[in-house]
Write a structure and sequence with these properties.
Shape: globular
CATH class of one domain: Alpha Beta
Number of strands: 15
Distance between the termini: 34 Å
Strand order of the largest sheet: 3-4-14-9-10-13
Helix content: 40-55%
CATH architecture of one domain: 3-Layer(aba) Sandwich
CATH topology of one domain: Rossmann fold
């Protein structure tokens, strides 16, 4: 299995090199040169298997032998043994043919754990085999940061720096990042938005001298390994609901497009997916794109669902690469124009092709609270704001009612207690293992939205730790 950059000018790499590289040298994102295929017999054989067993089967062809089967199997077993629910990603029925998949049973109560707990083990394995050390830099709109920190804390061959937008993540999300007492962990509050944090990370990667000197790597969903591992829960849900004999649809609350792109990747690999529904909040650039074919940037509006307060969805570039026929130069021109003018579009035929699989819906804060309240009153389920948007998007865009529709619940309601309490009167409690979160001491640094300041901080911190 080889991987190519969406911008067509970086070296073709094997999986282990893609894992450590994160972002391609030409600024693009890595995607498989060819998609492995899961045939009907493969999916049938997964019925009744554990989550970890299915994960091994799905991930194995993408790894392409760069990690030995025995090691990969051990890592998947260890990863998902640490989740709170025996099903790992339980499915709950919330309607006649409507389902909720709980993706918050991991250590930090968010869907990011599914990938990052395994990515952390993969990093440690590959780095130990090579005798190397890396500096991981990442941006977070809330959940990636805590999940990445939890996965990489106390690793001897990793320094990790997570940038988050100051005042724009929930108190629980912030404290999950800033109360970790590990010398290799650095949480940085940036005076700006998530898009600013993401641009700082990309800027560090695009500085070739800095990238090489610090041996940078990434755990954001720009890293292909993240998306690859997220394919697993789409396969698990589909198999549990009758695949390959029946199709399944998914509704995904989406900011950076990585989660729903994993569903699209599952479909490319042969999973019988009928619909992929993109749910957005008021920062609805993705919804507007799928409605009109035009991607137009506007200001970021703070909402009850901060992990989706994004205007530059990095992983959309992976879909764009496919939409433009694998033409890396065309992708680069498209992205450059978007960065320059803030608006760009695709032609009607390409939009029509994308809309054969994708649809999209938006929901503002008032609607989000309404859905949280309605779900609690009708099913007894407490939803966080992001998951509520996914549930409502499923309702808005539902196609064939005979096809099961799975809404992805991406975060535990206790990560956003104020919004849930305002809608339902119920203050969701954190799990017992996290009950003292607000008693723990915070440690983080605050930096301006300036790449020079951030690079200086990283240089000093790595030098002090190495």
């Amino acid at each position: 299995m080889k991987y190519v950059s969406t911008r067509g000018e970086a070296p073709v790499l094997a999986f282990d090199d893609v894992l450590l590289a994160g972002l391609a040298e030409d600024g693009g994102l890595y995607v498989p040169e060819e998609w492995p295929q899961f045939f009907a017999d493969d999916l049938t054989a997964m019925a009744g298997r554990s989550y970890a067993e299915i994960a091994f089967q799905v991930i194995r062809p993408f790894v392409g032998g760069t990690i030995a089967d025995a090691d990969l199997e051990r890592m998947t077993d260890e990863t998902y043994a640490g989740f709170d629910h025996p099903a790992v990603a339980p499915l709950k029925q919330i309607g006649t043919n409507d389902w909720l998949m709980e993706l918050f049973q991991g250590p930090t109560l968010a869907f990011k754990d599914f990938a990052l707990q395994l990515v952390g083990r993969m990093f440690a394995h590959v780095l130990e085999a090579r005798g190397e050390r890396v500096t991981i830099v990442g941006a977070t709109s809330g959940d990636t940061g805590s999940a990445a920190i939890e996965a990489c804390r106390d690793q001897e061959n990793i320094d990790i720096f997570i940038l988050f937008p100051e005042g724009r993540v929930s108190p629980v999300q912030q404290r999950q990042m800033t109360t970790v007492e590990s010398a290799n962990v650095h949480a940085i509050a940036v005076d700006g938005t998530f898009d600013d944090c993401q641009d700082l990370v990309k800027g560090m990667f695009n500085d070739a001298q800095f990238r090489k000197a610090q041996n940078l790597s990434a755990v954001n969903s720009i890293n292909w390994a993240r998306v690859m591992i997220q394919i697993v829960y789409y396969v698990v849900a589909a198999v549990r609901l009758g695949a390959p004999e029946r199709q399944v649809s998914f509704a995904v609350p989406t900011g950076n497009f990585g989660n729903v792109f994993a569903g699209w990747a599952a479909w490319k690999c042969g999973l019988p997916i009928d619909q992929l529904v993109v749910g957005t909040n008021s920062n609805d650039i993705l919804c507007r794109f799928f409605e009109t074919g035009e991607m137009k940037m506007s200001g970021v509006e703070p909402t009850l669902s901060p992990s989706m307060d994004i205007q530059v969805s990095s992983n959309f570039e992976r879909l764009l690469f496919d939409m433009l026929g694998g033409d890396g130069a065309a992708v680069r021109d498209w992205i450059d124009e978007f960065r320059k003018s803030g608006v760009v579009s695709v032609d009607d035929s390409r939009l029509a092709a994308a809309r054969e699989k994708f649809s999209a819906a938006r929901l503002d804060d008032d609607g989000t609270q309404r859905v949280i309240r309605e779900m609690f009153e009708t099913t007894g389920e407490l939803l966080d704001p992001h998951s509520a948007i996914g549930v409502d998007a499923a309702r808005q865009c539902r196609g064939d009612k005979a096809v099961p529709m799975v809404a992805l619940a991406t975060a535990h309601p206790a990560k956003f207690p104020a919004a849930v309490a305002a809608a339902t009167g119920i203050h969701p409690a954190l799990p017992e293992r996290m009950s003292d979160l607000f008693d723990r001491e915070e440690t983080f640094d605050t930096l301006p939205n300036d790449i020079g300041a951030v690079q200086d901080f990283v240089r000093h911190a790595v030098g002090a730790h190495s």
